[in-house]
Amino acid sequence: FSAALAPDAPDPQGTCQARLLDASDATLYEHAFTPIQGMAEGSQENAWQSFQLLLPDSPQMKRLVIACNGTEVISRAASAHAPQVTLLSPNGGETWGEGTQTVRWQASDADGDDLTFLLQYSLDNGATWTSLATGLTGDSYEVDSGLIPGSDSVLFKVIASDGMLSAEDVSDAPMTIARHAPTVRILSPTDGRWYTPGQTAVFDGEALDLEDENLPDDAYHWTSDLDGDLGDGPSIAVDNLSPGYHTITLTVTDSDGMSGSASIQVFVGNELPLRSYMPFVTAP
Fold first, then answer.
1. pTM summary value
2. Is there a domain that residue 281 lies in?
3. How many domains are contained in the chain?
4. Which end of the chain is more exposed for a tag (fewer CB within 10 A), N or C?
Protein backbone atom coordinates (compact mmCIF):
# COMPACT_ATOMS: atom_id res chain seq x y z
CA PHE A 1 0.00 0.00 0.00
CA SER A 2 1.16 3.54 -0.65
CA ALA A 3 0.66 6.28 1.93
CA ALA A 4 1.48 9.96 2.36
CA LEU A 5 4.00 9.32 5.16
CA ALA A 6 7.72 9.83 5.63
CA PRO A 7 9.84 6.74 4.80
CA ASP A 8 11.30 4.73 7.67
CA ALA A 9 14.89 5.45 8.67
CA PRO A 10 17.26 2.66 7.51
CA ASP A 11 18.96 0.35 10.00
CA PRO A 12 22.77 0.58 9.52
CA GLN A 13 23.15 -2.91 11.01
CA GLY A 14 20.33 -4.40 8.97
CA THR A 15 20.78 -7.90 7.56
CA CYS A 16 18.28 -7.34 4.75
CA GLN A 17 17.85 -4.72 2.03
CA ALA A 18 14.78 -3.51 0.17
CA ARG A 19 15.64 -2.17 -3.29
CA LEU A 20 13.41 -0.19 -5.62
CA LEU A 21 14.47 -0.71 -9.25
CA ASP A 22 13.59 1.07 -12.48
CA ALA A 23 12.88 -0.47 -15.91
CA SER A 24 16.61 -1.09 -16.50
CA ASP A 25 17.06 -2.63 -13.02
CA ALA A 26 18.99 0.39 -11.79
CA THR A 27 18.55 1.02 -8.08
CA LEU A 28 16.33 4.00 -7.29
CA TYR A 29 16.40 3.51 -3.53
CA GLU A 30 17.89 1.04 -1.07
CA HIS A 31 16.80 0.52 2.53
CA ALA A 32 18.55 -1.69 5.10
CA PHE A 33 16.47 -3.36 7.82
CA THR A 34 16.39 -6.33 10.19
CA PRO A 35 13.26 -8.52 10.13
CA ILE A 36 11.52 -9.69 13.29
CA GLN A 37 12.25 -13.31 14.14
CA GLY A 38 9.47 -15.64 15.26
CA MET A 39 9.27 -19.24 16.44
CA ALA A 40 6.64 -21.83 15.74
CA GLU A 41 4.73 -23.13 18.75
CA GLY A 42 6.71 -25.83 20.54
CA SER A 43 9.89 -25.08 18.57
CA GLN A 44 13.17 -23.51 19.66
CA GLU A 45 14.12 -22.56 16.10
CA ASN A 46 13.15 -19.46 14.15
CA ALA A 47 10.25 -20.47 11.92
CA TRP A 48 9.33 -17.16 10.31
CA GLN A 49 10.43 -13.58 9.79
CA SER A 50 8.25 -10.53 9.37
CA PHE A 51 8.78 -6.88 8.50
CA GLN A 52 6.84 -3.73 7.76
CA LEU A 53 8.45 -0.84 5.91
CA LEU A 54 7.52 2.61 4.67
CA LEU A 55 9.45 3.25 1.43
CA PRO A 56 9.39 6.30 -0.84
CA ASP A 57 7.05 6.11 -3.82
CA SER A 58 8.47 6.68 -7.29
CA PRO A 59 6.73 6.64 -10.69
CA GLN A 60 9.92 5.15 -12.17
CA MET A 61 9.78 2.08 -9.91
CA LYS A 62 9.17 -1.14 -11.83
CA ARG A 63 10.38 -3.78 -9.40
CA LEU A 64 10.84 -4.34 -5.67
CA VAL A 65 13.55 -6.72 -4.47
CA ILE A 66 14.13 -7.96 -0.91
CA ALA A 67 17.55 -9.51 -0.28
CA CYS A 68 18.85 -10.95 3.00
CA ASN A 69 22.51 -11.75 3.65
CA GLY A 70 23.23 -11.18 -0.04
CA THR A 71 20.52 -13.58 -1.29
CA GLU A 72 17.41 -12.38 -3.11
CA VAL A 73 14.35 -13.74 -1.29
CA ILE A 74 11.49 -11.68 -2.77
CA SER A 75 11.03 -10.03 -6.16
CA ARG A 76 7.82 -8.30 -7.15
CA ALA A 77 7.28 -6.55 -10.50
CA ALA A 78 4.87 -3.67 -10.86
CA SER A 79 1.96 -4.42 -13.17
CA ALA A 80 0.95 -2.10 -15.98
CA HIS A 81 -2.19 -0.77 -14.30
CA ALA A 82 -3.18 0.27 -10.82
CA PRO A 83 -6.39 -1.23 -9.44
CA GLN A 84 -9.64 0.69 -9.31
CA VAL A 85 -11.89 0.78 -6.25
CA THR A 86 -15.14 2.49 -5.29
CA LEU A 87 -16.55 2.72 -1.79
CA LEU A 88 -20.27 1.94 -2.03
CA SER A 89 -21.48 2.30 1.55
CA PRO A 90 -21.47 4.06 3.86
CA ASN A 91 -20.98 6.95 1.46
CA GLY A 92 -22.28 9.90 3.48
CA GLY A 93 -25.34 10.89 5.46
CA GLU A 94 -25.93 7.54 7.17
CA THR A 95 -26.37 7.12 10.93
CA TRP A 96 -25.16 3.98 12.69
CA GLY A 97 -26.49 2.95 16.07
CA GLU A 98 -25.22 0.04 18.12
CA GLY A 99 -24.73 -3.30 16.44
CA THR A 100 -23.11 -4.88 13.39
CA GLN A 101 -22.88 -2.72 10.27
CA THR A 102 -21.46 -3.50 6.83
CA VAL A 103 -18.97 -1.54 4.73
CA ARG A 104 -19.15 -2.41 1.01
CA TRP A 105 -16.97 -1.60 -1.98
CA GLN A 106 -16.31 -2.78 -5.54
CA ALA A 107 -12.93 -3.10 -7.20
CA SER A 108 -11.28 -4.26 -10.40
CA ASP A 109 -7.81 -4.69 -11.85
CA ALA A 110 -7.12 -4.50 -15.58
CA ASP A 111 -4.16 -6.86 -15.22
CA GLY A 112 -6.20 -9.50 -13.42
CA ASP A 113 -4.07 -9.24 -10.29
CA ASP A 114 -5.40 -10.49 -6.98
CA LEU A 115 -6.32 -7.56 -4.76
CA THR A 116 -6.18 -7.03 -1.02
CA PHE A 117 -7.86 -4.20 0.84
CA LEU A 118 -7.13 -1.93 3.77
CA LEU A 119 -10.13 -0.36 5.51
CA GLN A 120 -9.76 2.83 7.55
CA TYR A 121 -12.03 5.34 9.28
CA SER A 122 -11.71 8.97 10.33
CA LEU A 123 -13.59 10.65 13.17
CA ASP A 124 -12.55 14.19 12.16
CA ASN A 125 -13.64 14.48 8.53
CA GLY A 126 -10.38 13.07 7.16
CA ALA A 127 -7.81 14.95 9.26
CA THR A 128 -6.57 11.68 10.80
CA TRP A 129 -7.18 8.02 9.93
CA THR A 130 -7.32 4.79 11.95
CA SER A 131 -6.92 1.35 10.36
CA LEU A 132 -9.88 -0.94 10.96
CA ALA A 133 -8.88 -4.06 9.02
CA THR A 134 -6.11 -5.07 6.62
CA GLY A 135 -5.43 -7.96 4.27
CA LEU A 136 -9.11 -8.17 3.27
CA THR A 137 -9.90 -10.11 0.10
CA GLY A 138 -13.67 -9.74 -0.30
CA ASP A 139 -15.88 -6.78 -1.17
CA SER A 140 -17.37 -6.11 2.27
CA TYR A 141 -16.50 -6.05 5.95
CA GLU A 142 -18.74 -6.29 9.00
CA VAL A 143 -18.06 -3.64 11.63
CA ASP A 144 -19.14 -3.64 15.28
CA SER A 145 -20.07 0.03 15.59
CA GLY A 146 -19.85 -0.30 19.36
CA LEU A 147 -16.06 -0.44 19.01
CA ILE A 148 -15.74 2.86 17.10
CA PRO A 149 -16.01 6.16 19.01
CA GLY A 150 -19.12 8.15 18.21
CA SER A 151 -18.85 11.19 15.95
CA ASP A 152 -20.88 13.11 13.39
CA SER A 153 -17.80 13.60 11.16
CA VAL A 154 -17.04 9.98 10.23
CA LEU A 155 -15.51 9.05 6.90
CA PHE A 156 -14.50 5.60 5.64
CA LYS A 157 -11.65 4.87 3.25
CA VAL A 158 -10.89 1.67 1.33
CA ILE A 159 -7.46 1.13 -0.25
CA ALA A 160 -7.00 -1.58 -2.89
CA SER A 161 -3.55 -3.03 -3.62
CA ASP A 162 -2.26 -5.48 -6.20
CA GLY A 163 0.91 -5.92 -4.17
CA MET A 164 2.73 -2.97 -5.73
CA LEU A 165 0.24 -0.42 -7.00
CA SER A 166 -2.75 0.87 -5.07
CA ALA A 167 -5.87 3.00 -5.36
CA GLU A 168 -8.27 4.36 -2.77
CA ASP A 169 -11.72 5.82 -2.38
CA VAL A 170 -13.22 7.84 0.48
CA SER A 171 -16.83 8.43 1.50
CA ASP A 172 -18.36 11.29 -0.48
CA ALA A 173 -19.62 12.98 2.71
CA PRO A 174 -19.46 12.46 6.49
CA MET A 175 -21.76 10.08 8.34
CA THR A 176 -22.69 9.71 12.00
CA ILE A 177 -21.87 6.98 14.49
CA ALA A 178 -23.90 7.28 17.68
CA ARG A 179 -21.99 8.07 20.85
CA HIS A 180 -21.69 5.35 23.47
CA ALA A 181 -22.38 5.14 27.18
CA PRO A 182 -19.46 4.14 29.41
CA THR A 183 -18.82 0.48 30.09
CA VAL A 184 -18.64 0.06 33.88
CA ARG A 185 -17.14 -2.67 36.06
CA ILE A 186 -16.90 -3.02 39.85
CA LEU A 187 -13.47 -4.44 40.62
CA SER A 188 -13.92 -5.02 44.34
CA PRO A 189 -15.40 -6.23 46.57
CA THR A 190 -16.72 -9.40 45.04
CA ASP A 191 -20.45 -9.91 44.79
CA GLY A 192 -21.89 -11.29 48.03
CA ARG A 193 -19.16 -9.92 50.34
CA TRP A 194 -19.99 -9.95 54.09
CA TYR A 195 -19.00 -7.06 56.37
CA THR A 196 -19.47 -6.68 60.11
CA PRO A 197 -21.10 -3.44 61.37
CA GLY A 198 -18.56 -0.58 61.36
CA GLN A 199 -16.10 -2.44 59.17
CA THR A 200 -14.66 -0.30 56.37
CA ALA A 201 -15.82 -1.34 52.94
CA VAL A 202 -13.63 -0.19 50.04
CA PHE A 203 -15.37 -0.06 46.68
CA ASP A 204 -13.23 0.07 43.52
CA GLY A 205 -14.53 0.44 39.99
CA GLU A 206 -13.45 1.32 36.50
CA ALA A 207 -15.09 2.60 33.33
CA LEU A 208 -14.18 2.75 29.65
CA ASP A 209 -15.67 5.44 27.44
CA LEU A 210 -14.82 5.47 23.73
CA GLU A 211 -15.37 9.20 23.36
CA ASP A 212 -13.87 10.46 26.64
CA GLU A 213 -10.22 9.53 26.91
CA ASN A 214 -10.14 10.26 30.64
CA LEU A 215 -13.22 10.32 32.86
CA PRO A 216 -12.97 12.67 35.88
CA ASP A 217 -13.51 11.41 39.42
CA ASP A 218 -16.87 13.14 39.69
CA ALA A 219 -18.12 11.07 36.75
CA TYR A 220 -18.21 8.07 39.15
CA HIS A 221 -21.09 7.91 41.64
CA TRP A 222 -21.74 5.14 44.19
CA THR A 223 -25.12 4.41 45.77
CA SER A 224 -26.75 1.87 48.09
CA ASP A 225 -30.39 0.90 47.83
CA LEU A 226 -30.51 1.07 51.67
CA ASP A 227 -28.33 4.12 52.46
CA GLY A 228 -28.59 6.19 49.27
CA ASP A 229 -25.56 8.22 48.12
CA LEU A 230 -22.19 6.83 49.21
CA GLY A 231 -19.69 9.05 47.38
CA ASP A 232 -17.94 9.91 44.13
CA GLY A 233 -14.75 8.65 42.52
CA PRO A 234 -13.35 5.39 41.13
CA SER A 235 -12.56 4.28 44.70
CA ILE A 236 -14.36 5.11 47.94
CA ALA A 237 -14.22 3.83 51.54
CA VAL A 238 -17.39 3.54 53.62
CA ASP A 239 -17.48 2.54 57.31
CA ASN A 240 -21.11 3.25 58.21
CA LEU A 241 -23.20 0.93 56.07
CA SER A 242 -26.51 0.03 57.68
CA PRO A 243 -27.09 -3.61 58.68
CA GLY A 244 -28.76 -5.72 56.02
CA TYR A 245 -28.41 -6.59 52.38
CA HIS A 246 -27.22 -3.74 50.12
CA THR A 247 -27.30 -3.48 46.38
CA ILE A 248 -24.26 -1.31 45.64
CA THR A 249 -24.37 0.46 42.27
CA LEU A 250 -21.62 2.36 40.48
CA THR A 251 -22.97 4.75 37.85
CA VAL A 252 -20.59 6.55 35.50
CA THR A 253 -21.69 9.50 33.35
CA ASP A 254 -19.61 10.81 30.45
CA SER A 255 -19.34 14.31 28.97
CA ASP A 256 -22.26 13.59 26.62
CA GLY A 257 -24.52 12.88 29.60
CA MET A 258 -24.67 9.15 28.81
CA SER A 259 -24.49 6.75 31.75
CA GLY A 260 -23.54 3.14 32.35
CA SER A 261 -23.72 1.20 35.60
CA ALA A 262 -22.80 -2.01 37.39
CA SER A 263 -24.10 -3.47 40.65
CA ILE A 264 -23.14 -6.00 43.30
CA GLN A 265 -24.74 -7.13 46.57
CA VAL A 266 -23.06 -7.02 49.98
CA PHE A 267 -24.30 -7.94 53.44
CA VAL A 268 -23.64 -6.07 56.69
CA GLY A 269 -24.26 -7.89 59.98
CA ASN A 270 -22.65 -9.77 62.84
CA GLU A 271 -23.45 -13.04 61.16
CA LEU A 272 -24.97 -14.13 57.90
CA PRO A 273 -28.67 -14.95 58.29
CA LEU A 274 -29.71 -18.53 57.74
CA ARG A 275 -31.91 -19.11 54.75
CA SER A 276 -34.20 -22.14 54.67
CA TYR A 277 -35.52 -23.66 51.51
CA MET A 278 -38.66 -25.81 51.29
CA PRO A 279 -38.60 -28.39 48.53
CA PHE A 280 -41.57 -28.61 46.21
CA VAL A 281 -43.39 -31.92 46.45
CA THR A 282 -45.43 -33.03 43.48
CA ALA A 283 -48.20 -35.54 44.00
CA PRO A 284 -47.89 -38.66 41.88
1. 0.73
2. no
3. 3
4. C
